[in-house]
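Bumping my old thread because nobody answered last time. Still need a sequence for this structure:
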C-alpha cells in the first residue's frame, strides 16, 4: 500500500473505517449545545459526553474511507467550521498508518496543531504548542511543560503515546474521554464503542426542517444569545461573520477539491444564513 493510500484508508474494503485510521473531535461545550452545530456538518457521527463541560464527536469515517480524502484535511476542516460556528473551541485528534496529530480551532483564528510520524518523531511547528495552551487557557507552566515534552524526541513514545499525552494534559482542564475511545483505534470500532456509552446519540443530517428547529434547552443555555435561533445583536454579528468567512472558504475548498474544507465553508454559510433568517423573522413579528 502506498503512503497516500494508507493516509486515506485506501486499498479497498473501507480500510480507513475499520483499520488504523480514526479521529475524535473534542468540543469544550456540553453535549446538548454541540448537537445542533454538529448536525450541520452533514456527516454521520456519534456524540457523547467527555467530562465536565466537554463533549466528543466520533466520525463514522466515510470521507476518508470512501471519498479518498486524507483524514487530517477532513478533521481540520470540520474543527474549523465548528470552532467558528460556535463560541467554544474544538480540538481534532486524528491518526492513520503513517502519522497522527491534533489541531485546535477557536473562533476566526488560524487553527494550530501538531503532527507526529508513526514512530513518534515530532514533525510540527515549534510554537504550535504555546498557541495551543494559550487558546485553551491551560496552565502556562505545568501544562506547557507537559506539552513541550511531546515535541521532543523520545524513542519510547510512538504517535499513539503522543496523543495520549495530549489527552492527559486536557484532563486538568476538565476533559475526560470515555474508555475505549483511544487513539490508534479504527473509526468503526470507535463508533461502536461510543454508541454503547450512556447518553450517547447518533448525529445525522435530519433535513433542513429539523436542522433549523431550536433545541428545547436553547433559552436556558449560557450560549443561547449566540445561537442562530436567539436573534439579537450578538447572534446577528456572529451570523454575518459566519457567512463572510464561509463563502470564500467553500469556494477555496471546491477549487482544491478538498471535501472537508468545502463542507466547513458550507456549514458556516448555512449556520450564518439560519441566524440571519431567524433575526429577520424575529424583527418582523
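Sorry it took so long. Here it is:
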Amino acid at each position: 500500500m502506498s503512503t497516500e493510500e494508507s493516509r486515506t484508508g485506501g486499498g479497498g474494503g473501507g480500510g480507513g473505517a475499520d483499520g488504523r485510521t480514526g479521529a475524535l473531535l473534542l468540543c469544550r461545550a456540553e453535549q446538548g449545545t454541540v448537537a445542533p452545530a454538529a448536525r450541520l456538518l452533514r456527516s454521520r457521527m456519534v456524540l457523547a459526553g467527555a467530562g465536565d463541560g466537554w463533549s466528543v464527536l466520533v466520525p463514522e469515517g466515510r470521507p476518508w474511507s470512501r471519498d479518498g480524502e486524507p483524514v487530517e484535511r477532513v478533521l481540520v476542516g470540520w474543527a474549523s467550521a465548528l470552532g467558528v460556528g460556535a463560541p467554544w473551541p474544538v480540538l481534532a485528534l486524528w491518526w492513520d498508518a503513517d502519522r497522527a496529530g491534533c489541531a485546535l480551532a477557536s473562533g476566526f483564528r488560524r487553527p494550530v496543531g501538531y503532527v507526529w510520524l508513526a514512530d513518534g518523531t515530532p514533525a510540527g511547528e515549534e510554537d504550535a504548542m504555546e498557541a495551543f495552551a494559550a487558546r485553551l487557557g491551560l496552565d502556562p507552566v505545568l501544562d506547557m511543560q507537559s506539552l513541550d515534552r511531546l515535541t521532543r524526541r523520545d524513542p519510547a513514545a510512538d504517535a499513539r503515546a503522543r496523543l495520549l499525552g495530549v489527552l492527559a494534559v486536557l484532563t486538568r482542564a476538565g476533559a475526560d474521554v470515555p474508555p475505549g475511545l483511544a487513539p490508534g483505534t479504527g473509526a468503526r470500532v470507535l463508533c461502536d464503542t461510543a454508541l454503547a456509552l450512556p447518553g450517547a446519540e447518533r448525529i445525522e443530517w435530519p433535513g433542513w426542517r429539523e436542522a433549523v428547529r431550536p433545541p428545547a434547552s436553547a433559552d436556558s443555555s449560557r450560549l443561547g444569545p449566540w445561537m442562530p435561533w436567539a436573534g439579537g445583536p450578538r447572534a446577528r454579528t456572529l451570523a454575518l461573520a459566519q457567512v463572510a468567512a464561509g463563502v470564500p472558504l467553500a469556494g477555496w475548498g471546491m477549487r482544491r477539491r478538498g471535501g472537508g474544507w468545502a463542507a466547513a465553508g458550507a456549514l458556516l454559510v448555512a449556520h450564518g444564513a439560519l441566524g440571519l433568517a431567524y433575526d429577520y423573522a424575529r424583527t418582523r413579528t
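DSSP finds twelve helices and seven strands in the chain. Let me know if any region looks off to you.
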